[in-house]
Design a protein that fits this description.
484 residues; alpha/beta; OB fold (Dihydrolipoamide Acetyltransferase, E2P); 4 domains; 13 strands
Length: 484
């Protein structure tokens, strides 16, 4: 609860009777004096040189060695300057101690006033053997090595162009920002997905293993093509979650390729050794999985140049092949023409020997002569038939019905050509045609009773005579021949 404003307290506490305003109280010391007192107390209470046995952790090599010495109950800061570390470096296999190494260090304890820290200034250091964490690391390393966890043949290849990369780390760590910045700078087209996990402390190993198992189960649905398992630097205790068997098993069974970048370049964890590839830093892990767009552009340009050169070479080879084919074709055509010319010459010689022109001339003459004979025979046959027709016409004229008509007889017919043989065949109103020797007379039946003959005095009206063509008469119906 916030208290109400009190004006009397704005000027500070009441002044003591023995001190004037703005002066320190009696017995107060400055910070520098306090640091001097602490340093003096340490120098008087401790021997000038102490030997400390502990395990190296959080080791840093920056011209001087900075590290912690620890055991199960406490941690003490230590520094070893360059002038002192040269002899100690020769005592360690790698030229310097590593996190987890158990050492004995000789030095003096001082209070470093500028930073307000009490630390051991080491003047000499010797290794004593591996610490507890180092022994556990070695044991797990040998076990997994025997099981083939580090076998290069078991490593999965990394994708050349991943669609999405999952980053398994803490969302508050600097490693995440290094990875995302690098990926965005190199190729923004590659997507990144974060799985926030604890990367140190109790339960961190189980958290990391669950995240990897979940990614292995859902990577197809999420289009995850690769995983970056990373965190920043720290002591061996800080990185120990990545040395647990649960994390190693999860990395081993994950179907997605994993690039691990744990701690600094000098730090090595079990998870990195089991992973498909190890990177020295989170930035290098992102660079390993993200293609460089500038390099891609250069590669595309090079491929374009190579393609252009290949096309030019292919076109040149095709042109040379066409020239060769043209030459072959010309030679083939010439040879074919030569053969066909020889065949044609031989055929012409055979035709000349058989003289087809003479044969054709003789056959044309025979055809012409046969045509003349046929023409004469047809004329003779026509003449004989004309004579027979003339004779038949004269005979017909002598005995035909026209000769009878010429003696004063006539023939009456209905319009459909039936001959009127009885008065019953001529009904009133019917048109009749009467044939005489020199033509035809048209009439219409006016009336009368069957069996009666009109009186001679009764005039018989005649229909108007239709003009007939001069000199032409309708031919006599053959049916009237039986009248004569």
């Amino acid at each position: 609860m916030r208290l109400p404003f009190d004006p009397s307290r704005a000027a500070g506490p009441p002044s003591a009777t023995t001190a004037s305003a703005g002066s320190p109280p009696p017995g107060a010391v400055t910070v520098s004096k306090l640091a001097e007192m602490i340093g003096g107390a340490l120098s008087r209470g401790l021997p000038g040189t102490v030997a400390v046995v502990g395990e190296i952790s959080n080791f840093t090599d920056r011209t001087h060695w900075y590290f912690n010495l620890k055991d199960e109950g406490a941690v003490a800061g230590a520094v070893m300057f360059q002038t002192a570390l040269r002899k100690a470096a020769a005592l360690f296999p790698s030229g310097r101690p590593r996190d987890g190494d158990k050492v004995v260090a000789w030095g003096r304890v001082e209070f470093y006033a500028k930073q307000g820290r009490t630390q051991l200034y080491v003047e000499r250091m010797e290794p004593l053997g591996m610490g507890d964490l180092e022994r556990r690391f070695r044991a797990l390393f040998e076990e997994l090595k025997a099981l083939g966890y580090f076998d290069p043949q078991a490593k999965k290849p990394l994708p050349a162009f991943p669609r999405r990369v999952a980053v398994v780390t803490s969302k508050t760590g600097a490693a995440l920002h290094d990875v995302l910045d690098t990926m965005k700078r190199r190729c923004p087209a590659v997507d990144a997905a974060l799985l926030d996990v604890r990367v140190q402390g109790e339960g961190a190993a189980a958290d990391i293993a669950r995240a990897l198992d979940w990614l292995g189960e859902h990577h197809r649905a999420m289009r995850i093509d690769a995983i970056i398992l990373t965190r920043g630097g720290g002591s061996i205790e800080d990185l120990w979650a990545f040395n647990e068997r649960a994390v190693a098993d999860a990395v081993r069974r994950c179907p997605v390729p994993i690039v691990a970048a744990i701690g600094h370049e000098t730090d090595v964890t079990i998870a990195e050794l089991v992973a498909d590839e190890r990177a020295a830093t989170p930035t290098q892990a992102a660079m390993r999985l993200t293609p460089d767009r500038a390099a891609l552009a250069e590669q595309v340009e090079q491929l374009g140049a190579r393609l252009s050169q290949s096309l030019v070479r292919s076109a040149g080879r095709a042109r040379d092949r066409l020239v060769r084919l043209r030459d072959v074709l010309i030679r083939t055509i010439r040879q074919r023409l030569t053969r066909e010319s020889l065949i044609l010459a031989k055929t012409g010689a055979r035709l000349a020997r058989h003289r087809p022109e003479a044969v054709y001339t003789a056959r044309r003459a025979a055809v012409r002569e046969a045509g003349d004979r046929l023409h004469r025979a047809m004329l003779q046959a026509l003449e004989r038939r004309r004579d027979r027709v003339s004779a038949a016409a004269r005979e017909l004229a002598a005995v035909g019905p026209l000769r009878v008509l010429g003696r004063g007889y006539s023939v009456t017919m209905t319009p459909d050509g039936r001959i009127i043989r009885s008065i019953t065949d001529a009904r009133p109103g019917v048109e009749l045609a009467t044939r005489v020797a020199d033509g035809t007379i048209a009439s219409v039946v006016q009336g009368g009773r069957p069996g009666t003959t009109p009186a001679a005095s009764d005039p018989v009206p005649l229909p108007p005579r239709r003009p007939l063509a001069r000199g032409r008469a309708k031919p006599a119906d053959p049916r009237q021949m039986d009248l004569f």
